[in-house]
Automatic annotation (TrEMBL), chain A:
It comes from the Bacteria. This is ABC transporter ATP-binding protein. Coiled coil: none annotated. It holds the Pfam family ABC_tran. Residues 7-230 form the ABC transporter domain. It comes from Glycomyces terrestris. Keywords: ATP-binding, Nucleotide-binding. SUPFAM superfamilies: P-loop containing nucleoside triphosphate hydrolases.
TrEMBL record, chain B:
The lineage of its organism: Bacteria, Bacillati, Actinomycetota, Actinomycetes, Glycomycetales. GO terms for biological process: response to antibiotic. The chain crosses the membrane at residues 21-42, 54-74, 95-124, 130-154, 161-180, 222-240. This is Transport permease protein. Residues 11-243 form the ABC transmembrane type-2 domain. InterPro entries: ABC-2_transporter_component, ABC2_TM, ABC2_TM_bact-type, ABC_2_transport. GO terms for molecular function: ABC-type transporter activity. GO terms for cellular component: ATP-binding cassette (ABC) transporter complex. It is a multi-pass membrane protein. Keywords: Antibiotic resistance, Cell membrane, Membrane, Transmembrane, Transmembrane helix, Transport. Belongs to the ABC-2 integral membrane protein family. It is found in: Cell membrane.
Amino acid sequence: MPPTPAIAVTDLVVERGKRPVLTGVSTEVSAGSVTGLLGPSGSGKTTFIRAVVGTQKVKGGTVTVLGEPAGSKPLRGRVAYVTQDASIYRDLSVKANVAYFAALYGRDRREAMRAIERVGMGDHADKLAGNLSGGQKTRTSLACALVIEPEVLVLDEPTVGLDPVIREELWDQFRELAAGGATLLVSSHVMDEADRCDRLLLLREGRFIADDTPADLRAATGAANLEAAFLHLIRELEGAN
Amino acid sequence: MSPRITFITAGRILRQLLNDHRTVGLVLAVPALIIALISAIMDEAPQVFDQTGLILLAAFPFMLMFMITSITLLRERTGGTLERLMTTPTGKLDLVVGYAIAFGTAAAAQTAVAATVAFAFLGLDTAGPAWAVFLICIVTSLLGMALGLFVSAFATTEFQAIQFMPVFVVPQLFLCGLIWPADQMAGWLQGVSDALPLTYAVKALTEVRLNPEVTADMWTDLAVVAGAVVLATALGAATLRRRTD
């Protein structure tokens, strides 16, 4: 018997107003892996992510995380969500922000400082979050999630606008977390990040057009890189229509 | 609901407020200054000031709490922190009661400064005890907080939130007896006045002004205000949604 997936999504349908955003998508994410959720903006990435963390109203289908319904009470200490725009308090310092989220999970200031160091914000710990650059805000927001050492970490476009060096460091950390047994779901619209994932979900117009490992995707499409592989898939689909 | 998380939340909100030095200054100084101004305006009629100044002691924290709660909560909603909190162990009541504790503390500090100035330097006089005035002011400030919490659900920008002031706050101020005694208004308007919770805060204050002992009527009026606080808080908490579109 295969191990239970960390995230299982079956026939998920989400409508916003009358407009369908997700049209019955299904997938499974195995524990201890990094899964990339890729797709152009407007394809439904954020909606999918919000359904996984349980903040999205869904029309149909089921989303199960660690064996529990998404967003249910037992999951609130085990799943962390980093939103696209840094969800932190601008009128608090970096330290106060991370310490607050840490305290909600019964963790102390020392652990908060360690999370701040991990995202390379140690030198800015006493700065007000409102005075930080965009990338620094994102890293602070990430530290607020890392501090709780979640079993499932869901990140919506965490590397947008970041320095390439920091981006590299963050991806190393994502890999490290997964090696430690955590499950990561990371959305991105940057294709060069796709190769760092164990598995890729390509979302286009509300449905998955690919759900595979990077190597298999390249092999199946005969393309040299993932960008070309995705183009190939999209053309194939449009040709079929 | 968890008391631990409630207090952590209240601490975070107070820290946000304290980090904003200008707001702290305004919160503490402005009501005392305005009451001093009113006292100077009514220089020749200290008995009128005893009525108006007393009502203002409760009206200021009421307005202030309405404003800061509606704006801060709107920021939580639009800044994404509310959605984030909803994925943490924080319950809706933890958040709402956290707000009440934090802003209630701010209201207490504001009332303490304004009441000290009014009683000690401006000659404000009540027959009843000062602690009763203080208690009524705190409960009234929580009413402002609860209303602010509720209306923040209907505003999408801070600009809109501010414009809810004339809708939810100003009519209550006009009809509570601040500018004109309620029993001398048009009959139908007295009915409206009786339906507004701030009116009962003024009635309770009037009881303290006229009677040396705390009266049963004061407790009844205060209970009406407290009931409105609970109702508005429950409505406000109901507008916090874990799942949104």
